[in-house]
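This part of the workshop introduces the protein records we will be handling. Getting from the letters to the tokens is the skill we practise here. The record below serves as our worked example for the rest of this section.

…
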Amino acid sequence: MKVGIIGFARSGKTTVFNALTGAKAAVGAYGSREANVAVIKVPDARVDALSDIFKPKKRTYAEIEFLDIAPNEAAGEEKALDANALTVLKNVDALVHVVRAFANQAVSHPMNSVDAARDTRAMEEELALTDLIIVERRVERLEKEGRRDREHSLMVRCQGHLEEGRPLRTLELDPQEDALLRSFTFLSRKPMMLLGNYGEDGIGAENPSGLGAVAAELGLVLIELCGAMEMEVSQLAEEDRAPFREELGLGEESRTRFIQTAYDLLGLMSFLTAGEPEVRAWTIRKGTHAVDAAGVIHSDIQRGFIRAETVAYDDFMASGTMTKAKEKGKVRLEGKDYVVQDGDILHFRFNV
């Protein structure tokens, strides 16, 4: 899963990136136009528990790749994204808009004042306008070709929706329309969450970023954190983090909260494979069929799929071994159309 972190200049975007990933990217350095990139492993107690049982040579967690998109620092420019950023963002699965909700006289805001609600709406408008330009060009081309087909009808609908200032993620689509729009990688179609970056004075407060109302109005998931303090904690030794967080009243680790929110936003879950060579978590979308889950591991397994030997994680742990789980009737053989459940331990039978 790739997550693009976006925001206006001096919103604390790179600070949040460091807090979530444990990276040490330069904060406040705007010379580079390249995105900061980091990959983190998704904590999963199930992988740990299964590893204790199977003693594998390797344990592999699901991963999230973060891209911290360089801000637009052009003089007098109020846009957050330039052409380079737009190109990079086409390939991400989700967007996180870091919104500045902290005051710091030493760090100026590109719009000369801190207004989290204004910045949130401005980003929505910028993404919608970016997509509208693409849609208008597509409609113009289709009409020049004399096409009045399904695609033309859909693009006209998208145009009207965007002209009203609404992102494409709020446009109702049937499965065929959704598949067609996916090929265009529209930014306002991508799932997006707000991340309110508040100051130390907001720690322990309810809705410290002040974004609760605007997030509800726009239908956006909101997560709030004190980026500066979270980054400081992320640089500590792992055994020192929990006591420090408790002392400051920071609550659950920001990375854990973020991952849970991102998985829910994207409709993701994990199935597991377990054995002596490796215990591994595999990320799939909710509703994925067994044959498609097999393809996540390898296309040959999908192509030669016969059956999926399946046991729920809780049932396996209650049994202790696969042999005992089978004796209790907890292990099932499922076909191609079986909808994989979160935490299923799968062993695929296939022939190619």
Summary: The CA atoms of residues 288 and 339 lie 6 Å apart.
